């Protein structure tokens, strides 16, 4: 079973293309936002996904539209690549320390979109990236991936470290939750 997806999104604000392979492969990310590229690369690496992502957005305005639309496309691609979700583990959780910061992510590939996000950032800007945009990415990802996602930064003093721990912990959860470990769908209802 091939677990791949290709998603394109073109609006007046952004152009995003994503090729996703849940079984792995090379990772190329170009959004025009250096720190965001770093985070998406870490997310994809720890998930064990192959990703070819290109995004062009109205960065002359700010990074918001680009970050949100990448979240939309990444979520849509995940949902498409998972298909009927037969045999997947479904649930996963991960704690990730990053120096002084500690973050937790809990994921359910439930078919129900929900985000609980609890993180504050001591610094508002990381490079050219607004730290508040992490929540926008996660919300767009959870909504379009139709997953239940709980994330929290337990503590931390460096916005870079907090953000990186959040993205890495999501990657670890995705790796574990998307693993095919059985037969049928992991649900008493018989479908997700």
Summarize the structure.
The chain has four helices and ten strands. The model has no long low-confidence stretch (mean pLDDT 96). It is of the alpha+beta class and 192 residues long.
Word description of this protein:
- There is one protein chain.
- The chain has helices at 34-47, 64-82, 133-145, 159-178; strands at residues 4-10, 14-21, 27-30, 50-57, 91-98, 101-108, 114-118, 125-126, 129-130, 148-155.
- The strands form three sheets. Strands 1-2-4-3 form a four-stranded mixed beta sheet, covered by helices on one side. The protein has a four-stranded mixed beta sheet with strand order 5-6-10-7, with helices on one face.
- It has 192 residues and is of the alpha+beta class.
- It is built from four helices and ten strands, in the order βββαβαβββββαβα.
- Strand 5 (91-98) and strand 6 form a beta hairpin.
List the helices and strands and how they pair.
Blueprint: E1 4-10, E2 14-21, E3 27-30, H1 34-47, E4 50-57, H2 64-82, E5 91-98, E6 101-108, E7 114-118, E8 125-126, E9 129-130, H3 133-145, E10 148-155, H4 159-178
Parallel strand pairs: 3-4, 7-10
Antiparallel strand pairs: 1-2, 2-4, 5-6, 6-10, 8-9
Helix pairs in contact: 1-4, 2-3
Q: For the CA atoms, what is the radius of gyration?
A: 16 Å
Most strands sheet: 4 strands, mixed
What's the helix-strand series? EEEHEHEEEEEHEH
Low-pLDDT parts are none
What tags apply to this protein structure?
alpha+beta, four-stranded mixed β-sheet, 34% helix, 192 residues, globular
């Amino acid at each position: 079973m091939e677990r791949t997806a290709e998603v394109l999104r073109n609006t007046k604000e952004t152009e995003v293309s994503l090729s996703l392979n849940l079984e792995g492969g090379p990772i190329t990310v170009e959004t025009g936002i250096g720190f965001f590229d770093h985070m998406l690369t870490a997310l994809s690496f720890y998930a064990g996904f192959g990703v070819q992502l290109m995004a062009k957005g109205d960065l002359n305005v700010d990074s918001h539209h680009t970050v949100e639309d990448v979240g939309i496309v990444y979520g849509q691609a995940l949902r498409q690549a998972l298909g009927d979700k037969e045999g997947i583990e479904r649930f996963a959780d991960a704690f990730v320390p990053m120096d002084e910061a500690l973050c937790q992510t809990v994921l359910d590939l439930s078919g129900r979109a929900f985000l609980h996000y609890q993180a504050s950032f001591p610094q508002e800007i990381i490079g050219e990236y607004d730290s508040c945009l992490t929540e926008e990415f996660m919300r767009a990802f959870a909504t379009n991936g139709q997953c239940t996602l709980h994330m929290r930064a337990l503590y931390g003093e460096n916005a870079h470290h907090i953000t990186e721990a959040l993205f890495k912990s999501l990657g670890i959860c995705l790796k574990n939750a998307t693993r095919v470990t059985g037969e049928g769908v992991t649900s008493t209802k018989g479908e997700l």
